[in-house]
């Protein structure tokens, strides 16, 4: 079986880079000034790492809060059901 891959055009790459730029807070602050694709990808990686750290921190905080609450507390059960 041969697998054929579709070639992505330069225009499609520019469109994807433009969409990515609209998702990044730093790029939105910069406004119309366009960053290079390389800089934009570095910002994307940095932003994703910061989101991972934020999720880990919030998860730790939620775990700490749930440990201090009583096991039969209805709020704890609601939180557990939402997390599952």
UniProtKB/TrEMBL annotation:
Gene3D superfamilies: Helix-loop-helix DNA-binding domain
The name this protein goes by in its record: Transcription factor ILI3
Family matches, as InterPro entries: bHLH_dom, HLH_DNA-bd_sf, PRE
Family: Belongs to the bHLH protein family.
Keyword Transcription regulation: yes
Domain BHLH, first and last residues per copy: 1-51
One record GO biological process: regulation of DNA-templated transcription
Pfam families per the UniProt record, alphabetical: bHLH_ILI
PANTHER family reported in the protein's UniProt record: TRANSCRIPTION FACTOR PRE, TRANSCRIPTION FACTOR PRE5
Keywords attached to this entry: Growth regulation, Transcription, Transcription regulation
Keyword RNA-binding in record: no
One Gene Ontology term of the molecular function aspect: protein dimerization activity
């Amino acid at each position: 079986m041969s697998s054929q891959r579709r070639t992505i055009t330069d225009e499609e790459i520019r469109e994807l880079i433009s969409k990515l730029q609209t998702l990044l807070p730093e790029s939105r602050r910069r406004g119309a000034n366009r960053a290079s694709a390389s800089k934009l990808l570095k910002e994307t990686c940095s932003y994703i790492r910061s989101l991972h750290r934020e999720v880990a921190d919030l998860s730790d905080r939620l775990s700490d809060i749930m440990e201090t609450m009583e096991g039969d507390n209805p709020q704890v059960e609601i939180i557990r059901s939402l997390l599952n």
